[in-house]
Model the fold of this input.
Amino acid sequence: MMRDGCWDLHQSAENGAVARGLVAGELSKSAYITLVSQMYLFARRLDEAIRAHRETQPLLRALIDDEQLQSPYYEADLASLGVDAASLEPTPGTADAIALVEHVEAENPADLLALHYVREGANNGNRHVAKRLMQVWGQSDLAGMTHLDPYGKTQRSKWDAFKATLNAQPLTDEQKRSLVATGRAMFKAVTAIHRDVESRSTTA
Done:
């Protein structure tokens, strides 16, 4: 349901200029840094919300461990890129994405899983993006891009285990529909961040 219910937005996100630039290895380094900076702010707020509710929400506790929290990977990447994380300010799209986290946290914290599901699933394609960027930028390691490939060779097995655990949860139809709706909101939020990055790189 998550895959099928979000497929149209998934395809739309992949066809955006920033996503296409990443896959092709053609995104400028400055645009990449802007993207990492804004996604970090979003990831940090989502991680905070997950930590705050994980012990009281069985879905979050069953599916999300500390290794999956992304802000530490982003922080390491920003340091490698020479960016002071404390100095960052959100673009409008990022501010809206953070507001989405806060809305979900207040209304139904179990649905934080849907926000996390989308970013966790993105790691499958992001591994290939990392390899392409390493090639284009002449890097022999993942400095500045560990958030794209946090699990290395264990990515596929971890994703399969994540999906199996999710499928085993005793969810009602209403809970499933709510998760799908929140997953769709996540795709829209990330797309808005990408548009901000595209706009800034166009006007720079």
The mean pLDDT is 93. Residues 131 and 160 are 21 Å apart (CA to CA). The first helix runs from residue 2 to 14.
